[in-house]
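Retro notes
What went well: the complex prediction finally ran end to end.
Inputs used:
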Amino acid sequence: DTEVTQTPKHLVMGMTNKKSLKCEQHMGHRAMYWYKQKAKKPPELMFVYSYEKLSINESVPSRFSPECPNSSLLNLHLHALQPEDSALYLCASSLPRTSGDQTQYFGPGTRLLVL
Amino acid sequence: AQTVTQSQPEMSVQEAETVTLSCTYDTSENNYYLFWYKQPPSRQMILVIRQEAYKQQNATENRFSVNFQKAAKSFSLKISDSQLGDTAMYFCAFIGNYQLIWGAGTKLIIKP
């Protein structure tokens, strides 16, 4: 059983909608990640939070807005998305970089379809 | 540049057979972790096994084991007594500086 949860499992939205993806981890980790994954491809890193602060933004368009309200929660706010943003969005968590062990554990993902 | 290469886009074997998935990587770092992740049709990304580069002993998790050759920068995954539930995309990856570097994946099909 995964200790990283994501909601919703599926999301269909129009290009003018505003929606949010939620990720929660109960592993005591202090690093959290958002990935985007297209079919048959490896995940692409979008954002990294370390100790609730944004540490990496991989040049993601501003229509994606991450938020880390506390050490257990990670949100991804979506606004004015494009059809090409349709993908599986994965959340992951790990111990902080300073720990040495940065094994990432993934949630089940949110399948997003933009119409 | 840090890269991971999985040279087998797709493999298929009969149930109960043993199968080995290949992975080579390139990094200039000395301390790093290597991983095999499994992604079944549900698309849940599941950690299968991990190896710490400074450990010479190959990691083992039940039917899954690795052959880690640090000098050759090779990290293959062996699945023994394969089961239908092993059907999935398998990704090799390593992390040296916060970011996971992924291979392109190998699609493994276990046939009954």
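What we learned: Chain B is about 0% helix and 55% strand.
What to try next: split runs per interface for comparison.
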